[in-house]
Amino acid sequence: MAEKRSLQSRERPRVHRLRRWLGLFRVSVGRLASQLRRLPRQTAVTVALVALTIALLIIVTGISAGLAVDSTADDEADIRVLPPGGGTLSSVVDVESARFGSVHETAASIDQRDDVAYATPVLTEVIQIRTEGSDEFETVLAMGVIPPEEPATIEGVSTASLEPGDPHFANGTYDGARTGEIVLTDSAANGLNASSGNNLEVTSPTPSASLRQERNNQSRSAIYTATTVEETDSNDLTGELPLVMLHLSELQSITGADDDDLADQVLVETESGTSTAAAESAAADTYPTATIQSGSESDFGSIRSDDFALATSLVALVVAILICSLFVATSSALTIDRDRRTIAVLAAVGFSVRSRLAIVAITTLSLTLAGAVAGVVLGIVGISITNHVATATMAPRPIATLRPAFVPYAIGVALLAGVLALPYPLYLVARTNVVAELGR
Amino acid sequence: MTALEEISFNIHAGEIVGLVGPSGSGKSTALHVVGGLLEPIEGTVDVLGTDLTELSSSQRTRLRRDHIGFIFQQFHLLPALSARDNVALPLVERGVGRRERQQRATELLEQVGLGDRLSHRPGELSGGEQQRVAIARALVTDPELVLADEPTGELDTETGAQVLELLVDVAEDQTVLVATHDERAIDVTDRVLRLLDGEITTDE
After folding, report:
1. CA–CA gap between residue A234 and residue B102 (Å, rounded)
2. B127 vs A136: CA distance, rounded Å
3. Contact A30 B65 (CB under 8 A)
4. B123 touches chain A (CB under 8 A)
């Protein structure tokens, strides 16, 4: 026996401590399992309340993130690259304003960056359009874009119904297949008395463009099919104008802007969560004299929306931490009240105060963790239900988003709440009268 | 209220001493003082060459961990743990590895005749079996001193006698102080201290 003791005393303290902590962890888990058996209802209520709080946190944060995404979507792009003296609607305000050239190539070079979700040139031109068989042309504003792979909203109009890319461009030859797709805004559709699926005749009102088309033995007009009618927000800049959207090269061909591959501006959307600084720098390298506006400069509404989303999620965070802490502290204190004798026995067999506190802390945090995991599952289901209900009743698209970062965030919040809940149960443990409990 | 007054006794290493007296005579209090669970207002308590009154609470806990085993009237086993894990419990605080803890606990349980009850929880054991588990737990750290507070109090006569016999058998290398009001405990002790109203009346 003496030999055994001497061996033990020679063991490295770190290994000794590690074994002690592993042992304490096992005792804590055993205590938690016992609590589940002896007090199933109280344990279930604690886990359920923590889960409910965390689920609500995830749902509110998801809606906040959805609001933030929406505000970015309404803002269409993080970066707007404008030629010196150019503007969003320069073709309407001033037909002679500066434009970018070779925009397909330059936009593609920006688009290839890892931190860029998409980059598209935007050409705005006035065109004439009429439904097939109608006598009268309507003048509308046309917007030529390169629809990205993932649908985006540009000037309030979604690219979802347009084929991604720009096949007619065909590396600058402009002899690729025309898609014949055109998106109508509701104001344009009303003016034309057209709806989705209608064929439309499109032509340029500019004589030079028409002459050029005739010179090239091309028809003066092209036939397009309305892929969808987009309801645009009347508060949007373009909402009051009859607006249509089509592929950039097709609009360039109609209006004569294909000579130098022209566009009025380039919009760049960065990947979610990445800084716009690198993309701004890339745009500045490509267009040294251009005016570069970041999303935050171009739309105050997005700041307001983002601030609102941030404030909402912060309030949810604070409320979740407070409520979770109170639930966990109350439940843990109730459990300790029933478990004082166990704590006294641990003291009697030589467990230090620190070890006794550690056992209670591990048990409490494990319970919180169980609630957090259940809450994450519940939150994910809750977001699905929220989106389902929202889209079925009032919202045109899902209002809440779910991101992988929500999982560690929610678990971290629950554990923080658990840590904040610890002082009260630990105080009860430290105050336990060992002799009185053993004699009870 | 004063539980113990002017009490003084010595126990030699290896002795089995009975602290006998009626309920309320101060037996348990004396045991708790010797075990460092209570601190006397006056006087000294010298255990294994250390004056407990000079030690802090955490130092007394360490002394208990390393040198003293406790046996209680109500067994005080942790309901969440199996018999083996209950026996191995004091080794956790000493930082003994799991395999060694289990091996040592199994040996002790076999010694007290419960080799076939290793995985049973306290609720699945009889009173006598639970007290035997408690004896194994008190001895698992190989302490120099074993303090038993009414170890037969919750047991019937025959089981109580068996438990006392077992305690004396397995604790042959230890000093044992048994607080009891069971006069039959005298048969297994080397010496008896009789307590009445917090004072030792006889040392026989």
Report:
1. 75
2. 103
3. no
4. no
Q: Which segments within A60-180 are labelled E, that is strand? A: 79-82, 116-131, 138-145, 153-154, 157-158
Please list the ranges in chain B whose pLDDT falls under 50: none
Residue B3 lies inside a defined structural domain of this protein:
no
B79: nearest CA in chain A?
A: A34
Q: Which of A82, A106, A258, A243 is nearest to A168 (CA)?
A: A258
Give dist(CA A393, CA A386) in Å, integer.
11
Tell whether B57 lies on the interface with A, counting CB pairs under 8 A. Answer: yes
Percent of chain A at pLDDT above 70? 83
Which of A30, A345, A351 has its CB closest to that of B93? A351
What per-residue confidence (pLDDT) applies to A308?
A: 75
User: What are A228's strand-pairing partners?
Assistant: A183
What pLDDT does A345 receive? 92
Both tokens assigned to A370: 């169980």
**What residues make up the domain containing B81?**
16-203
**Residue B156 in domain:** yes
Q: Do B81 and A352 touch (CB under 8 A)?
A: no
Give the per-residue pLDDT at A240. 58
The Cα A306–Cα A303 span in angstroms is: 5
Query: Which tens digit of pLDDT belongs to each residue from A402-433?
Result: 888 889 999 999 999 999 999 988 998 888 88
Instruction: Report yes or no: A287 and A83 within 8 Å, Cβ to Cβ.
Output: yes
Asked if B13 is an interface residue toward chain A (Cβ–Cβ < 8 A), one would say no
Q: Please tell me the distance from the alpha carbon of residue A50 to that of residue A67, in angstroms, as a whole number.
A: 26
Please state the domain count of chain B: 1
Residue B2 lies in a domain: no
Which residues in chain A have Cβ-Cβ distances shorter than 8 Å to B76? 341, 344-345, 348, 438
| Residue A351 to residue B65, Cβ atoms within 8 A | yes
CA count, 13 A, side-chain hemisphere, A130? 11
- Separation between Cα atoms, residue A18 and residue A434, nearest integer Å: 27
Residue with tokens 């604790």: B171
pLDDT-based confidence at A181, cuts 50/70/90? very high
Q: Could you give the CA distance from residue A379 to residue A39 in angstroms, rounded to a whole number?
A: 26
Residue of A5, A20, A434 with shortest CB distance to B92? A20
Q: Which of residues 21-40 of B touch A (CB under 8 A)?
A: 28, 32, 35, 37-38
Closest chain A C-alpha to B11 CA, distance in angstroms: 21
Average pLDDT over residues A31-42: 82
CATH of the domain at B167: 3.40.50.300
**pLDDT at residue B124 in the model:** 92
Contact B62 A350 (CB under 8 A): yes
Q: Tell me which of A24, A349, A363 to substitute to probe the interface with B (most B C-beta atoms closer than 10 Å).
A: A349
Burial B64-86 (b: 16+ CB within 10 A, else e): bbbbbbbbbbbbbbbbbbbbbbb
Q: Is residue B104 domain-resident?
A: yes
The CA distance from A39 to the nearest CA of chain B, in Å, is 12
Distance from CA of A346 to the nearest CA of B (A): 8
Angle (CA) A349 A355 A357, round 5°: 115
Question: Residues of chain A whose C-beta is under 8 A from some C-beta in B?
Answer: 1, 5, 8, 11, 15-17, 19-20, 22-24, 26-27, 30-31, 33-35, 38, 341-342, 344-353, 355, 434-435, 438-439
- Amino acid identity of residue B114, one-letter, is L
Pairing mode, if any, of strands B68-71 and B145-149?
parallel
